[in-house]
Design a protein that fits this description.
Blueprint: H1 2-27, H2 36-54, E1 57-62, E2 71-75, H3 81-90, E3 93-97, H4 106-112, E4 116-118, H5 123-138, E5 142-145, H6 163-166, E6 175-183, H7 193-202, E7 206-212, H8 222-245
Parallel strand pairs: 1-7, 2-5, 2-6, 3-4, 3-5
Antiparallel strand pairs: 6-7
Helix pairs in contact: 1-2, 1-7, 2-3
Length: about 250
């Protein structure tokens, strides 16, 4: 049964993603260039919510998720599913590792959606990503980042890298911590994206608790902000896990 479920959902994922990408690329031919990004965001928001439904994801969100003047949202990172979760909740601009740009279908949509790609092993790429984040934040956009610098299993939040926090230096922009927990867990470890997706598709469903915390104090230097955010996210993950265990 799980094999049939995985095949059905994986097929639906490919079909929906390909159809949405084709529809967007066709429609963008008929709108002014300045409308391309908002159009891509509309398609992306629809796509991620449909995909979460296809894979049996059920979200429970606690906390404030809308920021009129923009925000830097930072969260723990376990799974490729985190991207869809955060886009569904915050409708922001994602900061993503550079190889995601090469993923089939989703990588192309991510490029259209103004995703900020960063190679964490390349100092110049990191600096360019910070500049891109600052531009987005100045424009009042919400930027979503995973400062652990990779995916990690279970609920332990690893050290946050300070790079993302440099983007808010001297800006009056809140840094908002978010904790994500899954039941059952969905670790993305040493495996291909297709295999990871197939494992999620095979299960009956996934419950997801998203806990949004209070913004950090303004004016912290990047390293202090990274440490404070990691501590807050860890507490939020523990709370999210308790919520899942109680239901």
């Amino acid at each position: 049964m799980s094999t049939i479920r995985a095949a059905y959902r994986s097929g639906a994922f490919v079909s929906l993603s390909a159809g949405m990408l084709a529809a967007y690329e066709m429609n963008r031919l008929f709108v002014p260039k300045e409308r391309h990004e908002p159009l891509a965001e509309t398609y992306c928001n629809y796509l991620v919510n449909r995909l979460l439904g296809i894979f049996g994801a059920r979200l429970a969100v606690t906390g404030e998720v809308a920021y009129e003047s923009g925000a830097l949202v930072v969260a723990n990172h376990q799974s490729a599913l985190d991207i869809a979760v955060m886009l569904s909740v915050f409708r922001g601009v994602m900061v993503s590792r550079h190889d995601v740009a090469d993923w089939p279908l989703l990588g192309r949509m991510a490029k259209h959606g103004a995703t900020i790609f960063v190679d964490r092993d390349d100092r110049h790429s990191g600096a360019a990503a910070v500049r891109a984040m600052r531009r987005r934040l100045r424009d009042g956009r919400t930027v979503v980042a995973f400062p652990e610098g990779g995916t990690f299993p279970e609920d332990t939040v690893h050290e946050f890298q300070p790079g993302a926090f440099a983007a808010v230096r001297s800006l009056d922009v809140p840094v908002v911590p978010v904790g994500i927990a899954y039941s059952p867990s969905v670790p993305f470890e040493r495996e291909s994206f297709a295999r990871h997706l197939g494992k999620i598709a095979a299960r009956p469903g996934t419950r997801i608790s998203v806990r949004v915390g209070e913004a950090l104090p303004l004016g912290l230097d990047p390293r202090a902000a990274a440490a404070a955010a990691r501590a807050c996210v860890q507490e939020l993950v523990v709370e999210a896990r308790k919520e899942l265990d109680a239901t």
